[in-house]
Write a structure and sequence with these properties.
- The strands form three sheets. A six-stranded parallel beta sheet has the order 1-11-8-7-5-6. Strands 3-2-4 form a three-stranded parallel beta sheet, with helices on both faces. Strands 9-10 form a two-stranded antiparallel sheet.
- α6 crosses α10.
- The chain is α/β, with parallel strands linked by helices and 303 residues long.
- The protein has ten helices and eleven strands.
- The longest helix is centred in the last third of the chain and has 26 residues.
- Among the domains are: 86 residues, Rossmann fold, CATH 3.40.50.10860; 124 residues, Rossmann fold (3-Layer(aba) Sandwich), CATH 3.40.50.720.
- Helix content is 41%, strand content 16%.
- It binds nicotinamide-adenine-dinucleotide.
Length: 303
């Protein structure tokens, strides 16, 4: 459990989940990154930059990018932000990514998704050089993840593993079900759990009888993007439940998991907000300082 987290549990009868305080775990991770950025500045004389690229005016993306920039600045990174309008062509976005790729001050490049229709998303993601791929989404980074070789890992899945580790949830030998198979979250989360020795099942929209699959799992990662999909009936008593979903409703943000009922069954549960979301940003920052350190070491070897 993080040092600054309060031991909060939901009590009602015999069962009560330990609430995984993502906000506190993320705060501690950001503080460690800030210390590494200070060391980098002391050694190299300038702060490494995180470049954020936003294309179009999707309101949720604007909020996500604003939060990422604020967190990066708070950890001491230089803030390079570029905003192209939704009419930007493939060549214009590629040109911008190439410019940032060639800029030695830029340690990491974050291309905010989704992109406006008409742009080739895979080609643009792969325009980011692997050493600056702090989102861990390029073909090379995903191949490194699949092979288990060194590389930058996707932020949300890495944040999920960190939450499980900080709260002492055993992964090796556990039965884990990831609900969702997206390139961004579900698939890489399953890959990381597999690498750590879990027996992993990936469920998705074509899965028959989801509850029968998830209710056997010690760890459930809900990343379907369906509000309230996971109920108490989907969860084995004592399981760790990680809710990745984020949905804006008139009542506020909710996840894929029905928090109140699942909290009575699960052993561990992440809240929304304040669970996985803050870890995504914290991991983006730790990936950025890792990228900066690796690049500085590489250049040092070539002097
Ligand atoms: P996506 O739409 O790309 O993928 C959703 C996946 O869920 C698909 O593989 C689909 O097959 C599966 N699915 C859909 N309905 C299902 C059902 N009824 N039963 C089982 N599986 C089902 O979404 P994504 O990009 O992976 O994001 C998933 C959710 O996580 C969204 O709510 C998104 O907003 C959220 N998200 C949160 C963070 C964070 O930092 N907390 C980061 C990224 C995404």
């Amino acid at each position: 459990m993080p040092a600054t987290a309060k031991a909060s549990q939901v009590h009602d009868g015999a069962m009560s989940a330990t609430i995984i305080e993502g906000t506190a775990v993320a705060r501690e991770s950001r503080a460690r990154t800030a210390a590494r950025v200070r060391d980098f500045v002391a050694l190299h004389g300038a702060a490494p930059a995180l470049a954020t690229v936003l294309v179009g005016g999707d309101p949720a993306s604007e909020i996500y990018v604003r939060n990422k920039r604020a967190a990066a600045a708070g950890a001491g990174f230089a803030d390079f932000h570029r905003h192209l309008d939704s009419a930007a062509t493939q060549a214009e976005v590629e040109g911008l990514l190439d410019e940032l790729a060639a800029d030695d001050r830029v340690a990491g490049i974050l291309l905010q998704l989704p992109l406006p229709p008409g742009l080739d998303r895979s080609a643009l993601i792969d325009r980011v050089p692997p050493g600056k791929d702090v989102d861990g989404l390029t073909t090379l980074s995903q191949g490194q993840l699949a092979r288990g070789t060194a590389g930058l890992r996707p932020c949300t899945p890495s944040g999920i593993i960190e939450l499980l580790d900080v709260y002492g949830v055993p992964i090796e030998g556990a039965s884990a079900v990831v609900v969702g198979k997206s390139e961004l979250v579900g698939h890489p989360a399953a890959e990381l759990l597999l690498r750590r020795g879990a027996t992993v099942t990936i469920a998705h929209s074509r899965t028959h009888d989801l509850a029968a699959v998830t209710s056997r799992a010690d760890i459930v990662v809900a990343a379907a993007g369906m509000p309230g999909l996971i109920t108490a009936a989907h969860i084995k008593p004592g399981a760790a439940v990680i809710d990745v979903g984020i949905h804006r409703t008139p009542a506020g943000l909710v996840g894929d998991v029905r928090f109140d009922e699942v909290a009575l069954v699960a052993g561990f549960l992440t809240p929304v907000p304040g669970g996985v979301g803050p870890m995504t940003i914290a991991t983006l920052l730790s990936n950025t300082i890792l990228a900066a350190d690796l690049e500085a070491a590489r250049r040092g070897q070539h002097l």
